[in-house]
Design brief:
Layout (H helix, E strand, L loop, with lengths): L1 H25 L35 H9 L29 E5 L4 E5 L5 E5 L16 E4 L5 E6 L4 E6 L4 E7 L14 E6 L5 E5 L4 E5 L8 E3 L17 E6 L5 E5 L4 E5 L5 E5 L7 E8 L2 E6 L5 E6 L4 E5 L10 E6 L5 E5 L4 E6 L4 E6 L15 E6 L5 H5 L7
Antiparallel strand pairs: 1-2, 1-24, 2-3, 4-5, 5-6, 6-7, 8-9, 9-10, 10-11, 12-13, 13-14, 14-15, 16-17, 17-18, 18-19, 20-21, 21-22, 22-23
Length: 404
């Protein structure tokens, strides 16, 4: 009987994946028919209303956010929480406005932790993957604008995966796991894939020297920004020097970071470039994003590393480059928080930290510095973060994200 039961579970899992892919292709998981003015689109998975759960400025409906809260994804701010045992000593939960998604790369998992350090959601759990399916080295992970799916970029496995939060299933993939390339359904070190409000995917493709725009459920790019080549160099819009991210701006454009030559470009999805600058003294700029109009934030993926804010003209505004025991070791992403703090994944220190720029101190930390692990409180090369809805990257930019 046990063998029959396992067979039924496998069949049920396969049916769920096939159904998920079909729904993804038709846009049923997201806002395929939404316009820029209304990024939410139809939401068939409503829940009993928590009227305060919505964030109108972020473009997320209250039902969507209530569903995310019920799944363990979203949760309250840490304002009235005491730090739990999984946090580093001295951590202040009030630094976070809610839960935090972490791409725990070398542990092959995604986790969501609340401000006190409890794990509230994890992927994959036993049984989440279909027979023959893998989920390896997630490099980045971001919520969709409607908070229904997570887009995980498995950079070193050459695939982008879309994970349905409610079902814990991979419902769409672009790329072939373990097989780099530049043809249809192929990428070579993809990075920072984001879902747009119209359900297109936007992703940097580092070693193919390009940025891809991919239609819902498609396996051929809708548009390629740059020239597909292995000879990456800075000459936008025709060539990009190993682009490692394209992050939304409030004016509808996207910030593209080029590793080669230390460049940041302002790209419109019409293909136009509206300006380029150098992050000041960054040896390996990574995942530059906008703090406010004209103010950018980047991580320097170096050892020792740094994070910094600077103007669109390349003028340094602030830098965090600690020395000694707290020196950063190849941080790859820093994101601004609503309270002015900055959350950073400090990859090779195996920790995620929150930095207060007013005091230049670490005020919250999940993970043990210099110690990798998989138990609660430990990470192994965390390579990406996103705030849980309604504070997620694409959620807060949903009403201003540029569309093709």
């Amino acid at each position: 009987m046990a063998r029959v039961r396992r067979g039924r579970l496998r069949l049920a899992g396969l049916i769920a994946v096939v159904l998920g892919i079909a729904l993804w292709s038709t846009g049923a998981f997201g806002s395929g028919g939404a316009t820029k003015g209304d990024p939410r689109g139809p939401d068939s998975r409503t829940s009993a209303g928590n009227g305060s759960a919505g964030n109108g400025s972020a473009g997320n409906g209250s039902a969507t956010n209530a569903a995310a809260a019920g799944s363990g994804i979203s949760g309250p701010s840490g304002a009235h929480m005491a730090p739990g045992p999984n946090l580093a000593p001295g951590s202040d939960p009030s630094a976070l406005p809610g839960n935090l998604l972490i791409a725990d790369k070398a542990n092959d998992r995604l986790i969501v932790v609340n401000p006190r350090g409890d794990i509230t959601w994890e992927f994959p759990r036993p049984g989440d993957l279909a027979p023959g399916q893998s989920f390896r080295v997630p490099d980045d992970a971001f919520f969709s604008p409607d908070a229904k799916v997570i887009v995980a970029t498995e950079e070193d496995d050459y695939v982008i995966s879309v994970i349905d939060i409610a079902t814990h299933r991979i419902v769409y993939r672009y790329g072939t796991p373990g097989m780099p390339g530049s043809g249809p359904n192929q990428v070579h070190n993809p990075d920072d894939a984001l879902l747009l409000p119209n359900h297109d995917l936007l992703a940097a493709d580092i070693k193919n020297c390009r940025i891809l725009l991919i239609g819902p459920g498609q396996h051929t790019p809708r548009r390629v920004y740059g020239t597909t080549t292995s000879a990456c160099h800075h000459d936008p819009p025709s060539h990009y020097g190993s682009p490692n991210g394209a992050f939304p701006m409030t004016n509808g454009h996207y910030l593209v970071t080029e590793i080669n030559g230390d460049w940041v470009d302002e790209l419109g999805l019409n293909g136009s470039i509206y300006g380029s600058t150098h992050p000041p003294n960054a040896a390996y700029p990574s995942d530059t994003n906008e703090v406010s109009p004209g103010v950018y934030l980047t991580a320097d993926y170096s050892n020792p590393g740094q994070i910094e804010t600077f103007t669109s003209q390349g003028q340094l505004l602030w830098r965090f480059k600690p020395t000694g025991a707290n020196a950063l070791n190849q941080p790859s992403l820093a994101l601004p928080l609503p309270n002015g703090d900055i959350v950073v994944n400090d990859d090779y220190n195996h920790r995620v930290i929150v930095v207060d720029p007013r005091t230049n101190t670490i005020v919250w930390q999940y993970g043990h510095t210099h110690q990798a692990g998989v138990l609660p409180g430990y990470l192994r090369i965390p390579d990406g973060v996103d705030l849980a809805p309604p504070h997620s990257l694409t959620g807060t930019h949903a009403t201003t994200m540029g569309l093709p």
